């Protein structure tokens, strides 16, 4: 696959930091593409697996933290000073399916096989590119939790995140062997990012097609796919954590509710708490600083970076593309939610 097919796929080089290749209708980062086919061919899901799916910058970090803290609360109570989230970034706690698969000879089997059940595994892959064992009726499956976000906020968050990646690469221009860690363009404006996004040319885009695929799957198999909206989670984080726990098969008991376990999980996974962890102030993922995953955590920040005309154009594209699906993105209640509702990461 990597040698014979990838060079022949359509390529997009204007969306940093890596080239994107169009594969089965979606734009996939070139370094990850081998992992897509490897995962489809060799990854073996377990019935107890929980897959966290999203387009990048749609609340992925927050969902990772919430799912991990909720599913493992018996072993790691949220108030435990040794809780994994107090010492490791959420992306170090929950691995992406396509990353180790892309960079290992055994299809990532060694990484995931070693994890105890229930495993929590993240992915940015569209539903149509997931391993068949996850989506097919006769597959061993597991459950999928999907989170989506207003495309305008997704675009802005992606653009700002890419700028941080590029700055990080510039600060560490060369590794020990003198090779450039991350290709860096001379500039990447919001206007450039906007045009690419509107054309669907973003990581795992088009974003609306990615969302639509999981939306259809959630209607087809509601017992296997939980569909969440970022904006609704901001408005009612505790209610959505309860929904998440019930879906994952670990609903909160009356005793836990009385003890405030739900509230403690939401607080542990909040923007302010995670941002203040030393690992998230000083650590890195090798390609970006951990602090880059924790920005504002609000809905509607797009209005600080996009013009009304840009917003109207993108809204129309999305509306036209999703016409007839029955799906609509949630609308932010306000441009800047009150501080007590700012429980998210991006």
UniProtKB/TrEMBL annotation:
Group of enzyme by EC: transferase
GO-annotated cellular components: cytoplasm
GO BP: sulfation
Sulfotransferase domain boundaries: 47-326
EC number annotated for this UniProt entry: 2.8.2.-
Alphabetically ordered keywords of this record: Transferase
Record bears the keyword Membrane: no
Pfam families: Sulfotransfer_1 (PF00685)
GO molecular-function term, one example from the UniProt record: sulfotransferase activity
Family that this chain belongs to: Belongs to the sulfotransferase 1 family.
Name assigned to this protein: Sulfotransferase
Organism, as annotated: Brachypodium distachyon (Purple false brome)
């Amino acid at each position: 696959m990597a040698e014979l097919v990838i060079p022949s796929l359509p390529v997009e080089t204007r969306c940093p930091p890596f080239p994107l290749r169009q594969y089965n209708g979606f734009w996939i980062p070139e370094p990850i593409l081998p992992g897509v086919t490897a995962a489809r061919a060799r990854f073996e899901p377990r019935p107890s697996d929980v897959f966290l799916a999203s387009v990048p910058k749609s609340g992925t970090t927050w969902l990772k933290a919430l799912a991990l803290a909720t599913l493992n609360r018996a072993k790691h109570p949220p108030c435990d000073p040794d809780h994994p989230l107090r010492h490791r970034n959420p992306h170090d706690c929950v691995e992406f399916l396509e990353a180790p698969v892309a960079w290992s000879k055994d299809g990532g089997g060694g990484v995931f096989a070693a994890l105890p059940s229930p495993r929590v595994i993240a992915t940015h892959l569209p539903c149509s590119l997931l391993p068949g064992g996850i989506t097919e009726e006769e597959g061993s499956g597991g459950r999928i939790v999907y989170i989506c976000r207003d495309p305008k906020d997704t675009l802005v968050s992606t653009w700002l995140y890419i700028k941080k990646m590029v700055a990080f690469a510039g600060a560490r221009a060369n590794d020990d062997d003198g090779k450039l860690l991350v290709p860096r363009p001379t500039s990447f404006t919001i206007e450039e990012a906007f045009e690419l996004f509107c054309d669907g040319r973003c990581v795992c885009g088009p974003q609306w097609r990615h969302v639509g695929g999981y939306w259809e799957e959630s209607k087809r198999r509601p017992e296997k796919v939980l569909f969440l909206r970022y904006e609704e989670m901001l408005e009612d984080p505790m209610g959505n954590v309860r929904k998440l726990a019930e879906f994952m098969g670990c609903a909160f008991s009356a005793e836990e509710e009385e003890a405030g376990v739900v509230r403690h999980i939401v607080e542990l996974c909040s923007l302010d708490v995670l941002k203040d962890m030393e690992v998230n102030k000083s650590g890195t993922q090798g390609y970006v600083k951990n602090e880059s995953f924790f920005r504002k955590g609000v809905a509607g920040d797009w209005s600080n970076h996009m013009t009304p005309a840009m917003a109207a154009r993108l809204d129309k594209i999305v509306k036209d593309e999703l016409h007839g699906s029955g799906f609509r993105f949630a609308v932010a209640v306000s441009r800047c939610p009150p501080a007590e509702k700012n429980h998210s990461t991006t």
